[in-house]
Amino acid sequence: MSAAELEARLRAIGAERYHDRHPFHALLHGGRLDRGQVQAWALNRYEYQRCIPLKDAALLARIEDPQLRRVWRQRIVDHDGDGPDEGGIARWLRLTDALGLDRELVESGRALLPATRFAAQAYIRFVRERSLLEAIASSLTELFAPTIIGQRVAGMLANYDFVSKQALAYFDSRLHQAPQDANFALDYVLRHARTREQQDAVCAALRFKCDVLWSMLDALHFAYVEPRLPPPGAFLPQACSPESDA
């Protein structure tokens, strides 16, 4: 494939498989979840946020080109910050604080859905074990992030009186960070995926990452929306407990 054909194929994968199409997001953005369900989403999504710099550190350790390392290490800074209470992870914790979740519970991970934990760890393993080209290609879901971020912020502010603009500050920074990161990764993939085998591999990597994000929402929907069966040990808000529906 030419570079243009490869890019078109990657964008088609996102259009078909990105998790903005998941029913859970339609409920979240449309104001059709209760506070407990929104809490469950934020708590479980924290695990994914926490693992992003771990994933990027694993990728960084494999890069021998200093110039590429300098670019990629910014992703870790964006999430970890340069100090306490800075960076994307700190901003996500301010969201869970605003939703009334105990910070120790969120950070401990003990109330996670099993599928959330498995999906986040699978992403780290993928980046560690696959080729550097595939690892970088797996980040290309960021190509599609600005649309879902805009929908999420607008929808949540319009529909939930327990959510404020300050609580959603994480997404403000991602509106400019995600396109920058995605454009760099896309350019890298288009320049380095030269053979058909490499091109098929980067497309498979993007499909895998879409599956990671989709599977986390599947788990949330099953546990907290329908049929509302959180597994043992998972976060159990009163509004979502099976007993509350009895």
Automatic annotation (TrEMBL):
Coiled coil: none annotated. Residues 8-218 form the Thiaminase-2/PQQC domain. InterPro entries: Haem_Oase-like_multi-hlx, PqqC, PqqC-like, Thiaminase-2/PQQC. Its EC number is 1.3.3.11. It is an enzyme of class 1 (oxidoreductase). GO terms for biological process: pyrroloquinoline quinone biosynthetic process. This is Pyrroloquinoline-quinone synthase. Pathway: Cofactor biosynthesis; pyrroloquinoline quinone biosynthesis.
